[in-house]
Amino acid sequence: MLTRLSIRDLAVVSALDLDLRSGFTVLTGETGAGKSILLTALGLALGDRADSGLVRPGAERGEVSLCFDLDDASSARDWLLDNELAEADEDICLIRRTISADGRSRAFINGRPATLPNLQALGRHLVEIHGQHAHLNLLQAGEQRALLDRHAGSRELASELKRIFDRWKDVSDRIDQLQQDASRRNARQELLQYQVNELEQLDIPALDYRALSEEHELLANLGRVSEIGYAQLKLLYEDEHYSVNGLLAQSTHAVGELAQLSREFAETLELLESARIQVKEAAMALRHHLDALDPDPAKFAALERRLAEVHQLGRKHQVRPEELPAHLETLRTELRSLATGEERLEHLLAEQSDLLAAYDTAARALSQKRQQAAEALETDISRLIHELGMPHGRFAVAFETDAEALPAPHGRDRIEFLVSANPGLPPRPLSRVASGGELSRISLAIEVASIAQKTTPTLIYDEVDTGIGGGVAEMVGIKLRSLGVNRQVLCVTHLPQIAALGHQHLLVEKHATDGMTQSTVRALNMDERTAEVARMLGGLRITEQTLAHAREMLMLAH
């Protein structure tokens, strides 16, 4: 539960340190005294958007701190542990939020920096705030369905159904996309198959464009090659008098004579003899290549056609001729991918069918739990609204299931809360028959009826007394007090009947000091409570009779 609320320089609050207890706590004060700033501060600390306009004029920043005792908030303790934000003392949680005058905001959980989503997620385990117009949410179908699920204890099942639906929706969207693309895919597949076949028929996988070009270049210049080649062959070896081989032979002979006279010329002789051998081998290799030249016009023509064919394919596919083999492999890869697209579609269709079966099973189970809970909820809320000043009221839950409907996130049930405020009239939708006061009472009845399913330790109500008064207001106070038996309940109220029933009474007051308005909050003792309840009963003029009435109300309440 919330044990301490501290505020610094926020709106009309300069400094406030408020200790809170378990049970039912009421907050009262004159209109405009600043009661709403307490709820604003709580909202900020639990992740509401920051507004620099909330910082007290003249201050650099505003700050809100909350301290929670986690003895009754096991889910919050688990969340802190899972997110590595638990304090050494795991039974305590400290939340702090600061807002600078320039609009910057920072948040901390147990002294560690935290994000707004962190605050919001943790806050859902700690506090439930019902604003002045929260009862209007009852008019929304989604809120009615959520309340029924909470009463049925089926929120986990509803969450699982939503998870299955989300997966089914994703798979269905992908199937639709694949099916919409089918015609384009088929056309692309036919084109790719034609291109692959064309390239394969022209033996592009075996294409070595560089070797093909070199062979064509050689045959195109065969005459020039022969002319130069045989001239060099004669120069190297075949000219008897002036060939390189002949000149080397003469030099070898001469140096051989020198080597006989001095061993120092032996190395030179070896080099010359090696040169003669290499020249001879070069000449033999040159002759071999020249003899192998085949001036075959048919072969040359075939090479010409092959090159023309390759160049044409390159232009057609907009790639360089030497890139054609790699381009063919790219086309094959895309073709295989399109083929697997059909396999993927079959897989998705099978998955869609499995998900639909799982959805149907979960939806039927959820419908059954909702129907069972609806009957109990009708009985409980009808009894409670009788006690809350609607003696002839009857609450009903209209329940309709369309087993043939497409899956929806919340199931196939259409749920609507109905009410009849007067005898003899059939129940009709809340939006058509319920006044603001009746909605408030029905909302409170639902809260009381579903308290056993709540795990949130702190419940806060802002002016839950809208549109009611007299004996009904007293009954509302009794119900709120009953909620406070197992929960911490805080209620901002203008009604003395409710204020008198609080276990703890806090008074919000506004003062003007040096031209600055400031709100303070203090706990009241019994005499102060009597005076405050009397003020709420009698307005500006407080008589002894009013004070006596206030004392009686407090005595009866306690």
Automatic annotation (TrEMBL):
Domain of life: Bacteria
InterPro entries from the UniProt entry: DNA_recomb/repair_RecN, P-loop_NTPase, RecF/RecN/SMC_N
Keywords from the named record: ATP-binding, DNA damage, DNA repair, Nucleotide-binding
One GO MF term attached to the UniProt entry: ATP binding
Keyword DNA damage belongs to the record: yes
Pfam families linked: SMC_N
Domain RecF/RecN/SMC N-terminal residue range list: 4-506
GO cellular component: bacterial nucleoid
GO terms for biological process, alphabetical: DNA recombination; DNA repair; SOS response
Role: May be involved in recombinational repair of damaged DNA.
The family this protein is said to belong to: Belongs to the RecN family.
Protein name: DNA repair protein RecN
